[in-house]
Amino acid sequence: MSSTIGGSVSVEFGCLRKYEVRRLSTRQGSGRMLSIRASVVSSPDTLELSKANAKQAEKMVRVGVLGASGYTGAEIVRLLANHPHFGITLMTADRKAGQSIGSVFPHLITQDLPNMVAVKDADFSNVDAVFCCLPHGTTQEIIKGLPKSLKIVDLSADFRLRDINEYEEWYGLPHKAPELQKEAVYGLTEVLRGEIQNARLVANPGCYPTSIQLPLIPLIKAHLIEPRNIIIDAKSGVSGAGRGAKEAHLYTEIAEGLHSYGITKHRHVPEIEQGLSDASNSKITVSFTPHLMPMSRGMQSTIYVEMAPGVNIDDLYEHLNNTYQAEEFVRLLEKGVVPHTRHVRGSNYCLINVFQDRIPGRAIIISVIDNLVKGASGQALQNLNLMMGFPEDTGLQYQPLFP
Hints:
Elements: E1 2-5, E2 9-12, E3 20-27, E4 33-40, H1 44-58, E5 61-66, H2 71-80, E6 86-92, H3 101-104, E7 129-132, H4 139-144, E8 151-154, H5 164-171, H6 178-183, E9 185-186, H7 189-197, E10 201-203, H8 207-221, E11 231-237, H9 251-254, E12 259-260, H10 269-280, E13 287-293, E14 299-306, H11 313-324, E15 330-332, E16 350-356, E17 362-369, H12 373-387
Parallel strand pairs: 5-6, 5-7, 7-8, 8-10, 9-10, 11-13, 15-16
Antiparallel strand pairs: 1-2, 3-4, 11-14, 12-13, 14-17, 16-17
């Protein structure tokens, strides 16, 4: 673009960015230097094109989300919206095939993503990595049929238990991919980071096991608590039960009260005991009772433990502090401060603290997470970041939503 001044001066402004201000200099015919301060606003179309091209160039990893119409799938989409390297190129949802993500989840209407397709119609030629957010019992055969080049994080329970006989006992189905089970790495990020980095298939932990194992595993490994008489009272928001319509999850069934369920037989029990037994190098059996709370999301595990002889509450606190002081997402609160679920809502954080019980020799541990983020999709993204060689907090630095 040029401008003529007094019929004798021609200034070439060139293309300036939005709101960019430059001092342009030119020489008049008289030899005097004329300075012109110019401010040029780029057109919206040009800016949007530049943004789109930059965004496309940055999305180096092409991601598929299997089961995008469920809560964990939607949470993956939300978290990836601000990820600088991961872009969604495929989404599946058998019952919602042909629909956009915005029509199924209106809060995601701003996301320009491909329509969902049935799993059987999915084309994986344009996919580098997959989040599998399908129900347990359906995932093993699907993952078995995926291209071997894909990195996979499975959010179902289908690959969490190493013992396929134990899987059949608790889930009531024979394991359909025993060879893949040998390859699967359990994805409790802060505990098994090294194995996750080199994995092709990661079994993302369940929500209850995440909130329970993060405080207990370091204490068990350090022999600071006894491996016996561990009592866990855990409470979850209703989203932890999934999006499927069930009578027990109707508003009038859940609201204004507590709903205990899965007493002595919740399917997360063997997963919890597997992780704690690994830490102890001996079999650990826990007493675990879960409850649904009349809230959408959030989880609190209150854990009652017996301290080892000669150990006091300060020893537990100091060891947890030493274990997690350099961690981004696991935070030990100041002494005496009680963790609350409202302080982790929408985030990938786990807040922990320990308290002296009134019963001598015993301690109370409280651990809170958002069951859909650190308990599911956030930890899944943390794991895929590691698997793809990116900093594990990439795309996860959302602050908790409060109030």
